[in-house]
Design a protein that fits this description.
Elements lengths: L7 H17 L6 H8 L3 H8 L2 H26 L5 H13 L4 H11 L5 H6 L1
Helix pairs in contact: 1-2, 1-4, 4-6
C-alpha cells in the first residue's frame, strides 16, 4: 500500500475515531457519531476518506504503523535496557487491553463480514 498523505485535520479525525472504535467497537460507532465527535461535516469526512470501510482501513494502517514504531523503539533504540527487560516491554505492549494492539484484535473479530477490505488490513 502506498504511503498515506493525510492533512492535520484528517489525522485528528483518525485519532479521535481510533479511540471511539477502541472503546465502543466498529459497528456501534457510525459516521454520524464520528463527524459529531470530531466536529467535521459529513461532506468533509467523505472527502477525506470516501467510505466508512476505507476510513476503518486507514485507521488500522495508522495504528499498525504506530505499533511498528513502538516495537522498533523498544528493540532498537534503548541500548541501556537488557534483552530481558525489552522482552517484558514487548510482552506488555502486546497484552495490554488498553494498548495499541487491542484495536487490531478487535478489528479482526468485528470487521470480517461487514468491512472485508478493512479486515484484510487488520
Amino acid at each position: 500500500m502506498p504511503n498515506l498523505v493525510l492533512s492535520t485535520r484528517a489525522i485528528q479525525v483518525i485519532n479521535k475515531s481510533i479511540d471511539l472504535f477502541h472503546h465502543h467497537g466498529f459497528h456501534t460507532v457510525g459516521v454520524d457519531r464520528i463527524v459529531k465527535e470530531c466536529e467535521v461535516t459529513k461532506a468533509t469526512f467523505y472527502n477525506f476518506f470516501h467510505s466508512k470501510e476505507r476510513f476503518i482501513e486507514i485507521c488500522l494502517i495508522v495504528q499498525k504503523e504506530r505499533l511498528k514504531e513502538k516495537v522498533v523503539s523498544i528493540v532498537g533504540y534503548d541500548q541501556n535496557t537488557s534483552v530481558k527487560d525489552k522482552l517484558k516491554k514487548l510482552y506488555y505492549l502486546h497484552t495490554d487491553v488498553e494498548g495499541m494492539y487491542y484495536l487490531l484484535f478487535k478489528a479482526i473479530f468485528e470487521t470480517k463480514l461487514t468491512y472485508p477490505k478493512a479486515y484484510i488490513t487488520a
